[in-house]
Amino acid sequence: VTEPAIEEFSKSAEVVPIDSVGDDRAISLTAMRQVMLNDSEAGALVVIGGKTARGGHTPGVDEEIQLARTAGLPVYIFGSVGGRSSEISATMTLAERVALNGLSEAANNDLATSLDYGRLAKLILDSSF
Hints:
The protein is mostly helical. The radius of gyration is 16 Å and the shape is globular. The longest helix is centred in the first third of the chain and has 13 residues, at about 25-35. It starts with a helix and ends with a helix. The protein has helices at about 5-10, 25-35, 60-70, 85-90, 95-100, 105-115, 115-129; strands at about 45-50, 75-80. The protein has a two-stranded parallel sheet. It has 7 helices and 2 strands; from the N terminus they run H-H-E-H-E-H-H-H-H.
């Protein structure tokens, strides 16, 4: 992204710019994800939506989940929002989802199916921090 874009994003979020790696977008995105998920202040990965593999696209969410697991971060997958998170949630067993974050089966069922995103956010915050 451009410097003006970084400045604009910085008005509403913490921005950690990552240099392009060899002008390769995929490798650069991996570098960004590694920095993001290895940040000492990272507490969890919350997966909401994400691009699917349609049209030959490689979903980044899959890599983010793997990196979060490697970093020892809990992973919370919202299954009702559509996109890649819904695909992943639908293919996982309840026990697999519990193993990602340590929440109860009931809480993980809610993450997979509920449309009450405020309540889901509270559930995650109450359990993690």
